[in-house]
Structure formats: structure tokens, C-alpha cells
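Run folding on both entries below.
>entry_1
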Amino acid sequence: MRRVVRCWRKLTLRPWRRDLPPKPGAGVALRRARLLAVEQAGRGHQGCGTGEGARKLRWQWAPKTRSKLRRWSKVEKLVNANDQDWLRLRDRVCVITGASSGIGRETAIQFATVGATVVAIDRDGNGCSQTTEEVRKLGGATLALECDVTDADSVSAAAGRALADFGRCDMLINNAGILQPGRLETLSLADWNTLLQINLTGYFLCSQAFGRDMLARGSGVLVHIASIAAGQPQGMSGAYSASKAGVAMLSRQLAFEWGPRGIRSNTISPGLIRTPLSESFYQAPGVKERREAIVPLRAIGRPLDIANVVVFLASFRAGYITGQDIVVDGGLSQTLMSYVPRPGYD
């Protein structure tokens, strides 16, 4: 009976020790193993940078007294929404491809608003310069680089320049892409290769070139812009859909291979987003209204809607998310069954 009471008192009066291993013997080794796991989780949780999270999380598995346990409450400061740098992106170096307009430019602007340093990359040098001007207006450090993402030498040169100027690359946003209409039975090999070189091979080359620095430091984040077309075939866009499906698998492969070395990789799949790339569709009468009608939120997405998710995925707050695809389409991809005739249910 005394033993039962004693155990009950331990559970009620000292609940903070329930998850700690016993002191003697193997418990010490177990505690050390858990501490190591927390340190590794801290590096990954931080997402990109110094491993500050690992040092603060040590208190989770290494308390020996109540005073030290109370000091573990410092971790809670990491989730203080009133913190001006609550995303932990201030002074991080972010490289964005396809940054001359649309989603790329808006992403650059949003990173600048949270204090990140922006490297804008695009084969359109003038567009890149305009993007960096927008970033400078917000007081951000920035660099515009004209680069052809399909050319390995051009990408390597851009990576070298970015590292020379800022010393590191914390985040890479693969966004460069094109559309190439055509039925698969008539699409030329040249058009097929051109689209895949930009939409898929370019992502690979940039991941490789900028990822080397991340791997050397054991920390970094990759975010790739895919599309709902990766999983939804559509007419006259077979090459585009195939390229975006490739991006989705490339990201998962990078997450698998580089995750143990501190690198996270995720994709974002936009739905109907109005950008310079798709603007010609909206010039046709009635297209905007018809598109809005099939989206559950009854609205066409903006580049800002994608940029907001990019910034989150690149941040400390998404530190345990990797190998995932985040769909940002206003619910469009959930409407398939609504097109199936069902008498009596219509």
C-alpha cells in the first residue's frame, strides 16, 4: 500500500518527471541519446542557420532540478507572436529564381518585409533590377543576377557571386518556369526539351549549385513552385504537367537525401493565379468570371497568396515540415466530384 501511495505521490506532485528515464544504469545512455536527438531536431527545426533552437531545446531532456526545469520555459519565447522577427528570417539570405515578375517578384518583396536578404535571379536582367528596386524601397539588402537556369555554368556563376557577396545561401526558392501549349501527339521535341530544361532541369541545377553551401553548413531550406497540374492532366499542357510532376518528385527526393544533413525541401502547388505568365487568358471576355465560378472561394489567386506560403515554409515556424506539397488553389482541386452527374442529388 505504501508503495502504491508513493507512486501516486510521484505522479501527482512531480508530473514533470514522468517522461524522464530512470537515473541509474541504461537511463543515462538513454538520456544522452534523447539529448542528441533533440539537438538534431533543433537544427532541423531552426530550418536554416545557427542551430539556436538546438541549444534552447536542451532543457527539455536535461533538467536535474526544478530551477533548470523552469529555465526551459525560455523555449516558449520562440512562439511569441508579438516578436517582430517571429519568422526568424531577419538577415537570412534568400535566392529566388524567376524573380523578374509575378510570383517571384512578390516573393522577393515579402521576404524583404521580414528582413531577409534577397538575391533575385532571372534571365530577364531588367526585370530582376526592377524587383531589387522594390526590395530596396523596403530597406532590404539585395542583389540582381542575370542567369539562365538551364545553363550549368551560368547557374554556378550566379551561385558563386551570391556567396561572394553575402557569404551563404539560407533559402532557395525555385520559381522559374514557362508554359508551352501543344498536344502531345504534335508537340515538337525542341519545345518539349525547352520546357523541361527550364521547369525541371533548372530546378535541379539551382538546387545542386546553391545546395552545396547548405550541405556544407548543415542547414538550409528549398521551396519549389510546382502546380496542381502536377496531379491533374489538362488539355494542351501535357509537357507542363509532366514537368511539374517531376518537380514534385525532385523535391521529395531532395527531402529524403538531404534531410539527415539538415536541409528541408517542399513544394507549393498553386491553382489559378493571375500572373504575367497567365495574363493572356484573362484578356479573353468572360474568362475571369468563368474561372472564379469554379473555385470554391470564388476568387482568382494573387502572387501574394503564394508568396505568403513560401515565406512560411522557408521560416523557422515550418521547421518540421519537409517532403510535402502545399496546395494553394482556393479549393479548386477538391471540386472533381461536383462534375459527376448524380440524378436526385443535383
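>entry_2
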Amino acid sequence: MSLPHTSDKFAQQNPVSRNILYTGNFPTLHIQYKPSETQNRSRHPISHLIITEIRELRSRNYNRAVFAENKKAKFDYEVIESYEAGIQLTGAEVKSVRNGGANFAGARVLLEAEGASLIGLNIQKYKHDSREDFNPSRTRKLLLHKKEIVAIQTKMRSAGLTLVPLKLYNKGSLVKVQVALVRGKKKFEKRELIKKRDSNLELARRLKTNR
């Protein structure tokens, strides 16, 4: 990220250090500088620089964290095309997901006329949630555009593909779900994947032993 032209000269005359610190879902850009005694800090372009760069960082997809992954689906299927979907969660569920309380075991996507739903995603009850009727595996609505749903349904019918959930992650302050059109892997493909994984584990063990 380059400094604006209005503050290039000032930045050259005064040491500037920039550190991106992550708090929650948004990164904050901290700029440290030492203005001369005769300069008014509040009126100098460097103040505008701080505001501009913090806003720019917040508008990007920095610090994207993956909360849960469907590892079984990645092993069993070949991903053909993926989509990003929103998901309707309660505030307590969002906090539980961010704390690592989500599990994709047994989860699947259901496409109906009224939209898409995620079935079987297990979200542990948040420790400060006082509701007694909490259902960890309730059906949750996925937020996809109608044209995306139509395109997905068309590809599923024409190419014999399946729609599966792959991972939960954050995008800014929102929780998103990656869903994908997939095709089942052949047995020899799975064997090759296991062989490659075992080989990598063996190599890692050797490197660790030789240290």
C-alpha cells in the first residue's frame, strides 16, 4: 500500500512505521511518526493518511478466518465450481462459530423452490446463551441469489453434480458458507490422495527427526 502523493514529502522527512494489528474481524492500521516541533499534527496531511488507510483496510477481505471445514467432502469429491452464500444465524450462534463450535459432520445442502437451506450443520450452544430450546442441528437458510440457484440446479441436472457445503469463514463481520458443485472421486483417485498424504506425513517426520 503506497503513501498518497500529498504526504510523500512528509513521510520522507519523518520516519513512518506501519503495522497492521487485527482486532476482531477488522484490521487496524497503526502509523507511528515523529513530526517536528513546529508542525501542527492535527492539520498535517498525515492525519488524513491515517483515516484513509484504515478505511481502505476495512473495505478489503483482510484477516479471513476459516471456522470449520468439510474435510470428508474434500476427500470424497472433486470440486467443479464453488459459490459464496450467506447464512442466517442468531447472534449466539455467530459467537459459537467464531469460537470453533461448528462441525460439518453429516451436513448437506437442500435446494427447494423457496431457496437453499443447510441441513445438519452442528453448532454448539454458546456458553452465555440462556435459551432452553436450542437445537444445534437446526435447518438454517442459505442466502443465494435466485440466478445462482437456477444456475446451480441447471448444472446439477445436466452434469449429474451434487451440491455440498465446504467451509464456514468470515468476510468482514459476516459469516459465510462456501458451497460447491462436486463430482464423486473414483476409488483410484482416493487411493492416490491417501498415498500422497502418507508420503507427506513421512517426509515431515523425517525432517523433524533430522533437526
